[in-house]
Amino acid sequence: MADRGRARGRRGGRDDGGRSSRARRPASARRRTGADNAETTRSRLRRGLAAKRASGAAKVLGMSTTRRAAVVAIVVCALAFTVAVPLRTYLSQRSEVRDQEAQQSQLQQQVTQLQDRKAQLSDPAQIEAEARRRLRYVKPGEAPYMVQLPEDQAAAQAPPTGPQPVPQGSWYEKLWDQVSGG
């Protein structure tokens, strides 16, 4: 212990020549002294005690290394499943929020268009123009003209798409009329 106190007083435990005190001693004197021997014994005891504590923990739990590894694996899996469900919910809700935001922006555009249309229809001249175009209204004293285009006539001559008239009579009468030519 006294050696340690002296070594602290000097710079880094070196002598006047800058050499360490061990290097100055002869080989026979370099053997461990009692203080050094006590330090190594203490460190050995501490290491042994730490090893006993670690093995003691294993003995207290009563598990082998394989069992402990299995328990750790089960705990890790349980934690993974615990995190997986909320993570999946979070991701699905995030995509739903994105869809809802897209729908909201689309609805905002529709609202803007409808407000513009409302502003247009508040003008009496616009209402009159709509009535003339859609309802074919005319003012008193005006002569209305209808222009027929060839496309309009082709659509008017198309056969009706309604149900076909059912001929009267039974099937065998129709067959006899076809065979006899009448």
Automatic annotation (TrEMBL):
Transmembrane domains' residue ranges: 69-91
Region (Disordered): 1-60, 149-171
Keyword Cell membrane on entry: no
Biased composition (Basic residues): 21-32
UniProt superkingdom: Bacteria
InterPro entries the UniProt entry points to: FtsL/DivIC
Signal peptide: none
Biased composition (Basic and acidic residues): 1-19
Pfam families for this protein: DivIC
Keywords: Membrane, Transmembrane, Transmembrane helix
Record carries keyword Membrane: yes
Protein name: Septum formation initiator
Protein source organism: Amycolatopsis saalfeldensis
Taxonomic lineage of the native organism: Bacteria, Bacillati, Actinomycetota, Actinomycetes, Pseudonocardiales
